[in-house]
Amino acid sequence: MWLKPTLAALAAASFSSAQELMRFGCSQLTIDRIDPLVNPGSVPSPHMHQIIGGNSFNASMDPNSLDPPTASSCTSCTYSEDFSNYWTANVYFRARNGTFKMVPLFANLGLNVKGGMTVYYIRGYQPNARVTAFPPGFRMLVGDPNNRDPNRVPRQLCFRCEHNMQQVPFGGAPCTGSDTKGFPKDTCGGGWRVTVTFPSCWDGKTLDTPDHKSHVAYPATGTFESGGACPSSHPVKIPQVMYEIMYDTRAFNNKAEWPADGSSPWYWSHGDPTGYGIHGDYVFGWQGDALQRAMDTKCALDRCPALKRQTDAEAIACTKRQIANEDIGDNKWLTELPGAPPLV
Ligand SMILES: *[C@@H]1O[C@H](CO)[C@@H](O)[C@H](O)[C@H]1NC(C)=O
Ligand SMILES: *[C@@H]1O[C@H](CO)[C@@H](O)[C@H](O)[C@H]1NC(C)=O
C-alpha cells in the first residue's frame, strides 16, 4: 500500500516540479541523550536528541560490527526496509521564571505518523544522472552545534514560522522567502517547520571521517537542485537527504511567559539561544539495494512502488526505551537543560 499524493506533497511538488524526490514519514523512535556518531559509547552524551528509524539505534553503533537492517527488529519509518537513523537536537522553551520545557513535535501535513520527522531523498534535477545510494556503514553530519554565526549556517538549514496548521500560504522552497537561519523571533500560529539538508556529493570511498563531514560536499557550481556538478574531489552524486521537523510551539505563544528582557525563549538542547547551531545526523541503514532501487525507479513524493511500506500504526509502534535515564522535560518544567550545557 502506498499513499495517495497529499496536500503537503503537492505543495512540496510545487517547489520542485523539475525535481525528483521521495518523501516519507517516520514516527518518534526515542528521545534520549545518546549520540553514536559524535559521542559513541557515552551515556549520557552532552545534549538531548530526537531520533527516528531503526531500533538498533544505541549509544555505540560500531559500523564494523553493527548492521542496522540485521540488528533492528523494527523501524519507525513507513518504508519498512529503512533501518537508518536520523536525528537532531531538541528545542526547549525557557519561561520567564527560568525553567525549561521541551517543544513537542507533530506529524507533517498529510502524514499520520506520531511526532518524528519527514525524510526526503532528493534525486535533484538531473533526469539521466545516476544517483548512487549510500553503502553500508555510511554516516554524515551537517551543521555545527557550536556555531553562533548566521553566516556559517550551511545552506538549506533553516526555520519557517508557519502562520497556521494548514501551512497556508505555502512559503515556497525550503530556506527561501521569510525563512530564517536562527529561531523565529515572533510567535507562530502553526509552529515551525525546520529544514535540515545534507550535502549531495561524496568522495566515493570514505564511509565516514573524523569530522563526519569531509567525505561529502556541495556541488562545485550551482546547486544540486539545479543540476550543479559535483566537485572533482567529491565526484559521486548521492541522494540529497533532507529532514523536515515540525515543532509545535503553540503552547508557548503567550508572550507574557517569554523572558522579560527580550532575550530568546528558545534553546537548542545544546544551550544555543540563537538557533544557528542547527545540525543533523545521519546513519545509513537501508536493507540490501532498497535505496538504490528507489533512486533508480525515480520514486516520487509519497509513492514508491519499488519499496515495501508498512502501516502507519506499525511505524508508530516501533519505539525504543530511553537509555540515559533522566527527565527529558516533555511534561515537566526543568530547572536546567538535561546535561546543563552553558546557555550561550
Ligand atoms: C545496546 O548497547 C548495549 C550495551 O551498551 C547492549 O547490551 C544492547 O544489546 C545494545 N542494543 C542493541 C539493540 O544493539
Ligand atoms: C514557571 O513558568 C511556567 C510557565 O509560565 C509555569 O507553568 C510554571 O509553573 C512556573 N514554575 C514555577 C516554579 O514558578
UniProtKB/TrEMBL annotation:
This is DUF1996 domain-containing protein. Residues 35-286 form the DUF1996 domain. Pfam families: DUF1996. The keyword Signal applies. The keyword Cell membrane does not apply. Residues 1-18 form the signal peptide. Keywords: Signal. It comes from the Eukaryota.
